[in-house]
Amino acid sequence: MNMRVAIVAVLTCFVQVSFAQLELDDVPERFSLGVSNRRDNGEMTALVRPVANKFASSVVQVVCGGRPVTLGTIVSSDGYVLTKQSELTTDPIRIRLHDDRLIDARVASVRKSSDLALLKIDAPQGFTPIQWSTDSPPVGSFLISPGRGARTISIGVVSVLARPVQHQGKLGVHLVDDSDGRARVQTVIRDSGAELAGVEPNDRIVAINGQAELSGNSVVKTLKAMYAGESVRLTIERLGTLLEMDATIREYNLMQESENDSKINGPRNIRLSGFDRAIQHDTVLDPDECGGPVLDTNGQAIGLNIARAGRVMSYALPSSLVIPEMTLLLEEARSAAR
After folding, report:
1. Cα–Cα distances in Å, from 332 out to 49, 111, 117, 132, 275?
2. Which of the chain's ends, N or C, has fewer CB atoms near its CB within 10 Å?
3. How would you classify the pairing of strands 169-170 and 250-251?
C-alpha cells in the first residue's frame, strides 16, 4: 500500500468513526471522544509528516517588525520567496528559514490583484524551491498544510472547487451626490476604516491620495480599485475647511459582524476577498499561517494558502493561478535587479 492510499484510508476511517460517535446518547462522553479524535490530532499529523516533509526546507516564516505575520514559499534557488502581500505592514522584513536562521529580506515585486508579494533573501547560498503541480483536487479530497521545517499545521478537506471570490474591500461610507455632483458622505459604517479615521456625515470627499475627485462616480471608481489592507489618504471638505486624514480599506463582512460572531469565527487575515480563483477548504489556519503551500495526499503542491476567512473556511490560490503570477513577479524582480 503506497503512502497516499494509506493516508486516505486512515483519514476516511477517522471520518467514519467521528460520524459513528454522533449516535451515542451520552453527550458529555461524545464531546470527550470528539476532541480525542480530531482530524488534525497528533497521530494524524504524524501520519502525514512524510508528505509534508517533502518540502520542509521550502517553507519559511516571514517576520515584520519583530513579529511573525505570515509564511512564505521559496520559489527559486536564488532566494526568492512568495508570500501574502497584505500582511507585510511593518519594516524590517526578515525570513526565518527551516533551520531557524533569521535573514534580512526585501520586497522585490508585488501583485495586488492576487495579494502576492515576492521577497528577496540576500544570502550566499542556494535554496530549495517548491515544485508546483497544476492538478485540481476534487471536492472532498484531503489537503495538507505544511509549516516551517517539519511541522504540519493542519489537515483539511476541499469544500468548493476553484472559483472567484468577490472583492469586499470597503472604505465604509455611504455616499450621495451633492448639488455640485460631488461625493458627500451620507452615513459612516461602524468599525470601518472611515470611522476610525474620523470621517463624519456630510463630509465631502474632494481628493484621494492627492488626486482630485470631481464627482461621486469618480470617488466610487477609485475606492473600488482598492483592496482590504490598503491605506488611503483622504482630503475632506468639512464646513468650508479642508482636512487630511488616513484611512484603511477593510473587509465589509468584518464590519458587519457582531462581537459574538467575531469570537466564533476567530482571528482572520486583513484581506480575505478579491481573488480571481480560490479553492475553499476547511483547514483551520491562523492568519500568520497563510502564505505557505498546500499539498494533496500525493505530496504535490497544488496551491498556496492565501486567507483564513472564517471559523472553518480558508482559501488557497490554485497553482494554475500561482504559476503565471509567480513567473511575472520573478521577471519583474530580476529585471529591476539588473
Report:
1. 35, 11, 12, 20, 21
2. C
3. antiparallel
